[in-house]
Structures are given as C-alpha cells and as structure tokens.
Design goal:
CATH class: Alpha Beta
Strand content: 5-15%
Helix content: 40-55%
Bound molecules: zinc ion
CATH architecture: Alpha-Beta Barrel
Structural class: alpha/beta
Number of domains: 1
Number of strands: 8
Shape: globular
Strand order of the largest sheet: 1-2-3-4-5-6-7-8
CATH superfamily: Divalent-metal-dependent TIM barrel enzymes
Number of helices: 9
Length: about 260
C-alpha cells in the first residue's frame, strides 16, 4: 500500500495554477485548493477550466478547502444565509474542477456557555444543507476537527464524533496537527472515525499551539499514526499543511521515510 500525498494551497501563491504546477512537477498525487486566501475569493471560469484540465491531464486529484474562519456556527440568520451561499460556491467550484470533496471547518463557540446549543445547532443545520447540496453533484462534505486553543468547536473527539454522527453521509478531514494541541491522540481519532475520513492534514507543533510546522519539528509522534493508518488501510490523501514549499518537500521526505520504516 503506497501513501498518496498532497499539500494545502499556500497564502503566498498568487495564482492557484502555480501551486498546481508545483504539485505536478514534484510528483504529488493531491492538491487542496484553499479558498481561505483573498486572492482565491474570485476564481474566473477560465481559471477553473485551466485548473480542471491541467490537473486531470496530470492525474492530480483535488480537494476544495473552504475558509477556516467561515462563521458557520454564528446563529444570526443573515450570516447563516451567507455561510450557506459560500459553501454552495465551494461545492460548485469542486464540480467545475472535477473534485469530489470539500473540507469545512466547525467554527467557534462565541456565545456564552449557557447558549452553546445555538452555535452547535447553527453548525449542524449548515452542515446538513451543505451535505444535501453536495450530494446532488457527488461532492462529499468533510468536517475538519479544530485545535484546542480559544473557543474552537470540534476540538475533542467526543463532540467531533457526536456532530459527525448527527449528519447522515457526512465525511471527515482529520487534522492530526490539530489533535496534537489537545490531550488526545490522533490514533484514537483514527480508530473511532476510520469509516468517514476522506482527507488527512499532516503537520507538527509544540503540543499546545497550532504552529503548522514541518513533521518531526514538534511533539507529534508520526510512527504510531502511520502504523494505525496501515492497520485500517488508510493510504491518504495525506495533505501536508506546512508553509512554505521547502517545508512541503522536506515534510514529504520525512513522511515517506516513516511510512517505509513503520
Ligand atoms: Zn487543517
């Protein structure tokens, strides 16, 4: 079983196609197109068809990454409408570039604890709408887990898996760097969520803050993680979420070595 590896698009890249060419030139199998960055808010039809043609000709698979700061759990109706519109745009982009999966983040618990259910309800409601809209086009919605610091939702396995269980046909993007900022282990997440993971983000940190460092520059032990992936027959995509390019290539070398040794 060979791992399939990609990377998440960079803030420093002005044109998405440059990331895609870098991915192809360096033999990556996957690329996650980040809608987070302002230069990617408006992607022209011409750019979308160039992305589709270049990636399909070179067998590069695509994932669409919606903005991590999308206020999906803010219950204000006008904001909810805008969130759903943005998720539909992302699903439309996925269909236009030939991708079958979209990563969505869980948002923040910004209301007082006694009103926490309003945030959770907003999140679940929006995810339902996104999953239903995506299903019409064969696009899977992959809910990502957040890191622990601050008011993050889905920053522990219990709430993350409860929310995933609430929504039929939803999938998961497991971010193991985010798990490393909690006192839980990525291996536990893999055991519990193995049937719904369609994407994995890999990077490292000091165990407290979400630093997006290269592999083995923090406290995350990738050996038991890789062992578990093999045990459950998960061979990717493993998306390096490390900046900049130099770290991506080094990260892949380290990951491949661990995969071979593990
Ligand atoms: Zn991530």
């Amino acid at each position: 079983m060979k791992p399939e590896i990609g990377f998440v698009g960079l803030l420093s890249t002005k044109q998405i196609i440059d990331d895609i060419r870098f991915a192809i030139d360096n033999g990556f199998q996957w690329y996650e197109l980040a809608l987070d960055w302002p230069q990617n808010y408006e992607i022209s039809e011409q750019q979308l068809s160039e992305i589709r043609e270049t990636s399909s000709q070179n067998r590069l698979n695509l994932v669409i990454h919606t903005a991590y700061y999308l206020p999906i759990a803010v219950p204000i109706p006008e904001i909810q409408n805008a969130v759903v519109a943005n998720l539909k745009t992302a699903i439309n982009i996925a269909t236009k570039v030939g991708s079958d999966r979209v990563t969505v983040h869980p948002g923040l618990q910004q209301l007082p604890a006694s009103a926490a259910s309003a945030s959770i309800d907003a999140l679940i409601n929006n995810l339902h709408k996104a999953v239903d809209f995506g299903a019409k086009y064969g696009v899977h919605i992959c809910l990502e887990n957040f890191p622990k610091p601050g008011a993050s939702l889905c920053a522990n396995l219990m709430t993350y898996s409860q929310i995933l269980n609430e929504i039929p046909n939803i999938s998961a993007t497991l971010d193991v760097g985010h798990v490393n900022t909690t006192n839980e282990s990525p291996v536990e997440y893999l055991s519990t969520l193995k049937n719904v993971i369609l994407d994995m983000h890999i990077h490292d940190n000091n165990g407290k803050t979400d630093e997006h460092k290269c592999l083995c520059e923090g406290t995350l032990d990738f050996y038991p993680l890789v062992k578990k992936c093999k045990e459950i027959s998960f061979n990717g995509p493993f998306m390096l979420e490390i900046f900049p390019y130099e770290g991506i290539l080094r990260g892949r070398d380290i990951f491949m070595k661990i995969w071979k040794d593990g």
